[in-house]
Amino acid sequence: MEHFVSIERWNDYIRGQSPMLVRVYHCHMQYRTLGKTGLRISVLGYGASPLGSVFRDIDESEGIRAVHTAIDLGINFIDVSPYYGLTKAERVLGKALRTIPRDHYYLATKVGRYGVEVFDFSAKRVTGSVDESLKRLGVDYVDLIQCHDIEFGSLQQVVDETIPALERMREQGKVRFIGITGLPLKIFPYVLDRVAVDTILSYCHYGLNDTTLADLVPYLQQKDVGVISASPLGMGLLTRQGAADWHPASGEVKLVCAKATAFCNSRGVDIAKLAVQFALANQDIHTTLVGTANPDNLRKNVEWIEQPIDHQLLEEVFGILKPIQQQTWPSGRPENH
Ligand code: NAD
Predict the structure, then answer these.
(1) What is the pLDDT of residue 163?
(2) Phi, psi of 232 (to 5 degrees)
(3) Is 114 a catalytic residue?
(4) In 152-280, which residue ranges form alpha helices assigned H by DSSP?
(5) pLDDT for position 56
(6) CA distance from start to end of the chain
């Protein structure tokens, strides 16, 4: 069992207001080693994209509270990008982290994506980008720097130019480990067969409606690569509020997921619970990133992973999702998906 001091109490403690009232939370979060990085990270990671108002408009104080709640709950791995809210997420996260000791969390950010259609994986841009992120986040180094959505760029450039540039940043102590992210699974072996990286981040490929990341796991294990899976709620598909208008899934996927949600509702269960429990049950995935700016959702997510999964409901939901199982959508350059 790991012991965590509430951040609110920790702040009071630092300010000397109530040094005798430090409360210690007994939290049941589990931790796994992120491949060859050796970092012991929480099985539930905090995805900070909502801090950039990606899903809905949020104010800064709400975002800061969410980050502090995540750390209170034993989450020690935080993922962000300059792309989220066009630097807003990094700025809000930086403010939230200002009062937290640097050794209480592992921080991952990204390079290469700067807008819906703005990509630049050149050595010059990514080098400047790391320095800009460090400034916004208010830290001297990040634990993990990831090339963001590489399927939109030239994979050859990522191999020949981007990763070597990040290696130089590593030598300067500005980043500790290097990773790659994106949607189509085939991008990962392309890069890993040509250059060593420490982690991969895959999204929307390990959840109730798509489990294709599992097929790549033996290859990733053979390379001792850290496996980060994001979006267990399918970026909103597997929630009661449903997918937003911008969601790239087909109408059929959205409809069938909505059917599964309604079915769970009829059984008095929030589909998000089943989705989080299912995704987190896979021990080969080192951490699963859920994004939310809502502290209540964060608490629910942590509570749900401690509760037993309803296997019968799971089977019934799989039955409903069968027609769209493993269906994804195109992303990036045609040759990369
Ligand atoms: P997600 O599947 O975590 O879904 C987020 C949505 O679910 C939000 O609308 C949120 O409010 C809602 N939600 C969260 N917990 C809930 C709960 N308990 N009940 C009901 N609704 C809940 O998708 P995501 O946010 O896109 O992914 C998580 C993180 O993963 C991102 O913040 C980001 O850090 C990372 N990510 C990275 C990439 C990439 O690098 N290419 C891509 C996708 C996601």
Answers:
(1) 98
(2) -65, -15
(3) no
(4) 155-157, 163-171, 187-192, 213-222, 251-266, 271-280
(5) 66
(6) 42
Question: Which atom of ligand 1 is nearest to 294's Cα?
Answer: 11
Conformation bin of residue 86: beta by default, left when phi > 0, alpha when psi is -120 to 50:
left
DSSP string, 68-113: HHHHHTT--EEE--TTTTTTHHHHHHHHHHTTS-GGG-EEEEEESE
Sequence ranges of the domains in the chain: 29-336
Phi, psi of 33 (to 5 degrees): -85, 130
Q: Kindly state the tokens that stand for 286.
A: 């080192």
Q: Ligand 1, atom 43: nearest CA belongs to which residue?
A: 203
For residue 230, the CA-to-ligand 1 centroid distance in Å is 7
Residue 25 has what pLDDT? 47
Q: Quick check: 243 pLDDT over 90? A: yes
* Integer Rg of the chain from CA: 19
- What pLDDT does residue 58 have? 81
What interhelical angle do 251-266 and 311-321 show, nearest 10? 150
pTM, full prediction: 0.93
Q: Can you give the pLDDT at residue 21? A: 34
Residue 291 has pLDDT above 60, yes or no: yes
Cβ–Cβ < 8 Å for 23, 111: no
> Per-residue pLDDT averaged across 166-192, rounded?
98
How many angstroms does the Cα of residue 145 sit away from the middle of ligand 1?
A: 19
Domain covering 29-336 assigned CATH 3.40.47.10 in the classification: no
Provide the pLDDT confidence category of residue 26 given band limits of 50, 70 and 90.
Answer: very low
What percent of the chain is modeled with pLDDT above 90?
A: 87
Please identify which of the residues 46, 84, 105, 206 carries the catalytic annotation: 84
